[in-house]
Specification:
single chain; mainly alpha; Alpha-lytic protease prodomain-like; three-stranded mixed beta sheet; 9 helices; 3 strands; 64% helix; elongated; monoatomic cation transmembrane transporter activity; SLC30A9; Cation_efflux; transport
Length: 315
Amino acid sequence: MSQEKTNENNGMGSVIAALAANILVAISKFIAFFISGSAAMMNESIHSLVDCSNQILLLFGDKRARAGASERHPFGEARAKYFFSTIVAMMLFFGGGALGVIEAVEKLSHPAHEISNTGLVIGILIFGLIVECSSLRVAFKEISELNTEKLPLFHFLRESRHSEVLIIFTEDACAVVGLVLALLGTVLSQLTENAFWDAFSGLLIGLLLMAAAIFLAVEFYSLLVGESATKADIAKIKSAFERPEIDKLIDLKTVHLGPTDILVAAKIDVVATFDAKTFDLINDIEVEIRKRLVGYKVYIYIETDTFDADYKQNT
């Protein structure tokens, strides 16, 4: 997992770019669908409409995540991003795919459905492809900024705690692939004079969205339950405890409260000669941890204890 240097706006630039792109593309796709009757274009229209709803939900989730600590939520509401990302994945993303599959199956049952104005459909699909590629480029740029360890793309996506970046990249990638499939289906239907290819491409687009939704649901489940800090960040945290005053780091637990919020709980065994300076020692460790985790909001709780090799902690 990469260390993710972040600020409050990281990850949301791709959301705004995707929203602007999808509004523009959705309008053009619906026009083409009403003119042509293309099943693939209908699926793509639903896809873009769902995508617009996705980005609105993600922006609302980001607003909720910025809420400060309260008596009811003492650590703030940073994990709201994970909740709204899960809604996007399951209720909208998956729903859009299911609707597309249902419509495509109906068209496959009636392969004689007509497609008109294919030239216009192809033109709008190419236009949409250009716009979606531009949005995907923004997502790639933000991933590059967050992926400071230069991990392989899929590895970074699996390990990233930034749900909005994960969902926007997946969404934009599916949009580009979906447009290519719709374009191929339309062209093949025109060349063969067989509307089967249009309906079949619509089916593939729907299945693609459903597969993406399942992938996202698995990732967001893990984030909602609570994932630890990254291996790189845990190593940085542990390094703050490597000092002569500490005999042993007995236990260390971390959990992401949000993309850039981390809870650190540690138990240490202090060398007897430094017992009188425990207060200053803990303060110094907290300062060091925060210096090492630049860009994160860190909640730190450290307690002292005596190490017992025979002690078994309940897990």
